[in-house]
Amino acid sequence: MTVSVVLVDDEAMVRVGLRMVLSGEPDIEVVGEASDGLEALDLVARTRPDVVLMDVRMPRMDGLAAARRLVAEHPGSKVVVLTTFDEDEHVAAALRAGVSGFLLKVSPPEQLVEAVRTVAAGGGLLDPGVTLRVIAAFAGQPGKGDAPDRTAELASLTSRETDVLRLLARGLTNTQIAARLYLGEATVKTHLSRVLMKLGLTSRVQAVVFAYESGLVRPGETAGGGDDSGVCRTP
Predict the structure, then answer these.
(1) What would the DSSP string read from start to end of 139-191?
(2) Threshold 0.85, pTM exceeds
(3) DSSP string for 103-144
(4) What is the pLDDT of residues 192-220, one digit of tens each?
(5) How far is the C-alpha of 41 from the C-alpha of 177, rounded, in Å?
(6) What are 91's strand-pairing partners?
(7) Which residues are recorded with the post-translational modification 4-aspartylphosphate (predicted)?
(8) pLDDT at residue 234, rounded to an integer
(9) Fewer beta carbons below 10 Å: N end or C end of the chain?
(10) In this structure, are residues 19 and 30 in contact, taking their beta carbons and an 8 Å threshold?
(11) 160 or 84, which is more confident?
């Protein structure tokens, strides 16, 4: 199955670079490009891509506003925000908006390709080069940011669902969570699906943010066991 992708960035050279990397893959097809959020909304409505790679800072309508619209209006098109190191606050807002992940613009080509495939398959992708700083700065800190009280929602989870959410937020993959809790991977996926349903979340990426906002996991806590790619995946 071919993964269709739309590129959204106000810099033509950035779009050219992204297209060159992705077009070289036999299972990925770039079906359109847009230079701002307004163009992106129209293009996505016409092409219905599997994945949208979205820049943040653009004229007319920025990437965050466009991402919020796309998540609400075209849930079948998964949005990955492309970011730089100086846009932490923007990334935090994008995660809360329900995007499927974000990736640094300086990421190597193979990481970009893997990100597109992961998100298209229904997973989430968090680049730890920014993620940990975002979470530490904007989640789980009383009196900072606009995070709501999540106590009641957290209490709706069973103890096993809470365990799974905690490990997910600490960066473990489904395979690692299964090994840690002595469960099958299918069981872990079932627990995660129930967590999303109970909490009214649209992606596993949002579940990670929820875990920090609720205080279930605190900034700085880790569980180890990450893979070698440097990317936290939530398949």
Answers:
(1) SS-TTSTTPPP-HHHHHTS-HHHHHHHHHHHTT--HHHHHHHHT--HHHHHHH
(2) no
(3) EETT--HHHHHHHHHHHHTT-EEE-HHHHHHHHHHHSS-TTS
(4) 989 989 998 877 777 887 887 788 887 65
(5) 37
(6) none
(7) 55
(8) 46
(9) N
(10) yes
(11) 160
